[in-house]
Write a structure and sequence with these properties.
This protein has about 200 residues and is an alpha+beta fold. It has six helices and five strands. The chain has a five-stranded antiparallel β-sheet. A hairpin with a 5-residue loop joins strand 2 and strand 3. It is rod-shaped and about 125 Å long. It starts with a strand and ends in a 7-residue tail after the last helix.
Length: about 200
């Protein structure tokens, strides 16, 4: 399901016949990807646009001015709406009651407000980017120290392991030594011991 933008008119309010005709003149710009209908809950007039095409069309000054004019009259641009397609929902009026009192200053004010809102969003995005960059810098500064610490631990552990292997290499454990000496002493003949103690006269 594609993304859409909905232009919702206030209830019981319709664009003028001139405005409706102007909207139809932008059909090629919108690639005919728009529909007339109403909001299910209030039955207020709503116009559905394909979001991507709508954003591209807003680059056209005339189309943008038409949308901004409707926003000044109280129309809202929303991303989600319970929309019912019905071309008969569009019932243009000959004159726009509020349009008589609308001045160019109001249109300029509306555009300035929207521009300021866009700038604020841009600044917020830049601030978030700077915060992420600062965090990455801190992490980058800490990584070398962490690697040095890890390397030191590895070297110490390796040295301890090698030293322990060298000390215990080809050496008999104390328990094994005691058992070996005891075993040899038990197996040695007593006659052999007596012969060593008693000397013959010739040996004397």
């Amino acid at each position: 399901m594609g993304a859409y933008r909905y232009l919702l008119f206030p209830r019981h309010q319709q664009p003028t016949a001139e405005e409706a005709a102007e909207l139809q003149s932008y059909a090629p710009l919108l690639k005919n990807r728009f529909a007339i209908g109403f909001q299910r809950k209030t039955e207020a007039l709503a116009i559905l646009f394909d979001q991507e095409i709508f954003e591209q069309a807003m680059a056209d000054e005339g189309f943008e001015m038409l949308i901004r004019k409707w926003q000044v009259h109280g129309c809202e641009l929303v991303e989600k709406l319970k929309f019912v397609k019905d071309p008969a929902a569009l019932k243009p009026t000959h004159t726009h009651v509020q349009q008589r009192h609308m001045s160019q200053d109001k249109i300029v004010f509306a555009k300035q407000y929207l521009a300021q809102e866009a700038i604020a969003r841009s600044l917020l995005s830049v601030q978030r980017t700077v915060e992420r960059f600062t965090w990455l810098q801190r992490v980058g500064k800490a990584v070398p120290y962490a690697l040095i610490l890890l390397g030191t631990i590895v070297v110490i552990a390796a040295g301890f392991y090698v030293s322990n292997r060298i000390e215990n290499a080809d050496r008999e454990r104390r328990k094994e030594t005691i058992e070996r000496v005891s075993t040899k002493a038990m197996e040695e003949s007593l006659d052999t011991g007596n012969k060593r103690e008693v000397q013959t006269p010739d040996e004397q």
